[in-house]
Amino acid sequence: MGRYRVAMDIGGTFTDVVTYDQQSGAFAATKASTTPGDLSEGVLAGLDAVVDEPSGIDFLVHGTTQGLNAFLERRGVPVLLLGTAGTEDTYHIARGPRARLYDLHYRKPTPLVPRRDVLGIGGRIAADGAELTPLDEDAVRAAARKARAGGHGAIAVAFLFSYKNPAHELRAREILQDELGDDVTVSVSHEAAKEWREYERTSSAVVEAYTGPIVRNYLLDLEGRLDARGLRVPLHVMQSSGGILTAESARRRPLQTLLSGPVGGAIAGAELSRQTGRPHLIGIDMGGTSFDVSLIVDGEPDVSAEAQLEGLPMLMSVVNIHTVGAGGGSVAWAEAGGLRVGPRSAGARPGPACYGRGGTEPTVTDANLVLGRIDPQGFAGGQMTLDVQAAEKAVDGLAEVFGMTTTSMAEGICDVANSKMAQAIRTITVSRGIEPRDSALVAFGGAGPMHAVFLARELGIAETVVPRFPGAFSAWGMLQTQIRQDYTEPYFYLDQDLDTADMAATLARVEKDGLDGLDREGVAGDARHASHAVDIRYAAQEYTLTVPLTGADEPLGETFLADVAQRFADLHKSRYGHANLGAPIEFVALRAAAFGDLGRPDPQKWPAADTPEFAHEIRTVVFDGEAQDTLVARRDHLFVGHTFDGPAVVVEDTATTVVPPGYAVNVDDIGSLIISRKDGQ
User: Fold this and answer.
1) Interatomic CA distance for residues 265 and 467, integer angstroms
2) 261-285: per-residue pLDDT in tens?
3) Are 440 and 385 found together in one domain?
4) What is the 3-state secondary structure (H, E, C) of 175-228?
5) Are 10 and 79 within one domain?
6) pLDDT < 50: residue spans in the chain
7) Whether residue 246 is found in the same domain as residue 274
8) Residue 582 sits in which domain range?
9) Which part of the chain is the Hydantoinase/oxoprolinase N-terminal domain (predicted)?
10) Is 43 part of a structural domain of the chain?
11) In this predicted model, what pLDDT tens digit does every residue of 342-377 receive, in sequence order?
12) Could you tell me the pTM of the whole model?
């Protein structure tokens, strides 16, 4: 058995690496510059910084942004889409936005596949799964010839009712692979998303086809490089659902990794909730290019069965994360007489002006440096020395436009960024009936702790928690998760027609498929378990809510229908503000999630302080327009029992925590910084 458990999280600016030494029980974290041209280089550089030999690694997981970046930057492979003849326009007709019916400025999202690359294929499956018309195999072969001639790198196959009977999709894939070999990737919709909505299922298959080859090639390249360096264990990849799977499985189901980068923070938040006894948390992850918000409700991440990116839907289990373009590298600029911050980012190169890589535009990082809130000598663990004069010059150029002083402009940049981030938190909380003041704010990411207390003040949140290794918190979370595979079975019954014995049998079958599927992931039989849920709606409604069940045998209970109806009503009222208990309900789909436990690090207790004193210095930092004497301490000098008041700055290798005046800080027993208002409000 190897000595280290290692997790790596690729960000827009830095790649974070966390290691757990199974012999000493100690964690360590570091950063390496992200290498956009070849992400594997940044991953390997980060790995070299913490582990001498990959052969000493017992477990390795990482979150990849390859698929997401390919999607957002529209650099996926050209896709040919095959649909059922007569319905091939489904993908381009799409679905009207319910929330924007009267928005005169609404524009439909741009499809990933142009209409000229959508072909109708003869053959028809009925809604009950019966074959009405045989598949037109000659048309499929003609489509293969078109794909070869047109230079398409992938084919998506999405036939009507394939979730009920996939025979036509499976046969189409066989023909396409016979004709094209391994030159073209084929994605079939019933595997991408075994769900009943035709447009959403088609969109899921298209996204998988569009990004899949890039993800597969990246993982193959990274696995090859790691193998050449002596890695003896499988590479694992974070999924959008918050679970992990082996890279081999990820290559088969690349859609599941699309949002794998951001979700590590949500899983870390759930573990922090368990360790600290705080059931409700709002996680904020501020990196170099983006600001991600996630929720922990009753100790669990907020997960849904559907996601949208740039208006395009995907049916898959995904941790709900709201993202806005507000990071340390977000560029500040003037427009129409007002100050704008982001979403455009300076990225890793050239980066903020203070990086000294050729950037000249002012960014949020430059503003914080001008205000004295960042140590220019110790940035990113001392890997970079920041250019204060370059930052001042960049901010001063914008200050002249508004007739302001340099420091006032710097505070203005931070205030606008904070306002934008606070609104992102409101979007994922208040708009869903969740009161932010009932939760604690967990700050992570390289820049999150720098802005968190200001956000908490604006939102009325009483407590801010800064965990250990905040800049690598998402990577730490990846060490806390499990293997996960999700399965869905469409199941349409009104409550009055439901056969609970059949439902229990179907759930048991789906669970068995899930648990058996963990064989490929190398999970021992006694380390497997499953959870179940059912999608329910009021009769004649269009959309559903997912109601958790307590076990596969629950539908056999005499009070099952009454219990699940009550739970559905409670969820409906929580989400929409009303419910109609007693009205007919309809079951739409059964869900099973199979989990495999690969072990996790033991919680590491933080040492207690021997004395209330700790090493620190006093520097001048700007708060509320005034230069104030500010306590500056190293995080590794703070132990359980240490307390101090703001204004203060806490410096560590992966992040900087800023505490404005009027707040107090104490260190809990796992080393987290707990920041609260001095007046207790």
Assistant:
1) 11
2) 778 899 999 999 999 999 999 999 9
3) yes
4) HHHHHHCCCCEEEEHHHHCCCCCHHHHHHHHHHHHHHHHHHHHHHHHHHHHHHH
5) no
6) none
7) no
8) 483-596
9) 5-179
10) yes
11) 888 887 678 899 998 888 999 999 999 999 999 888
12) 0.86
